[in-house]
Design brief:
The protein is an alpha+beta fold. About 20% of the residues lie in helices and about 25% in strands. A hairpin with a 3-residue loop joins β2 and β3. α1 packs antiparallel against α2.
Length: about 140
């Protein structure tokens, strides 16, 4: 773990967990033995941050926006599974449903960090109605 935040946010716990798990699963599929994967969280007055980072191959700048599209797959990926290419678009949809965003910091050959940023002023009526809860 890089960091562990302490605090409360209003969020759909199941969807937020799904988003973080999608990012962690992607990291496992794009790293090799000996490379690192780390998770973390932080909170400040305005936002909550949840991230997954790895020291894998990284993502070139030409593909960094495209990978959030539905069914997108990286060319020449060393990915070890045959997913449908929906994971990052789902993560982005979950972040947006919470009035947030997903940030990507990556360079080819230097790994990647995906960060879910959620504003703390998120109102409950903007969240999916099935399971609002404190995280």
């Amino acid at each position: 773990m890089d960091a562990i935040a302490s605090g409360q946010i209003v969020a759909d716990r199941q969807r937020l967990t799904q988003a973080i798990m999608n990012l962690a699963e992607n990291a496992t599929q794009h790293t090799e033995a000996g490379e690192q994967i780390a998770l973390g969280s932080a909170i400040n007055r305005h936002n909550a941050y949840f991230w997954v980072r790895d020291t894998g191959k990284g993502i070139d700048s030409a593909n960094q926006k495209r990978i959030f599209e539905r069914f997108a797959r990286l060319p020449n990926s060393r990915r070890r599974s045959e997913g449908a290419g929906l994971g990052l678009s789902i993560v982005q949809a979950i972040a947006q449903a919470h009035r947030g965003q997903v940030r990507l910091n990556s360079r080819l050959g230097a790994g990647a960090q995906f960060t879910i940023v959620l504003p703390l002023e998120s109102r409950q009526d903007n969240l999916p109605h099935e399971s609002n809860s404190n995280c």
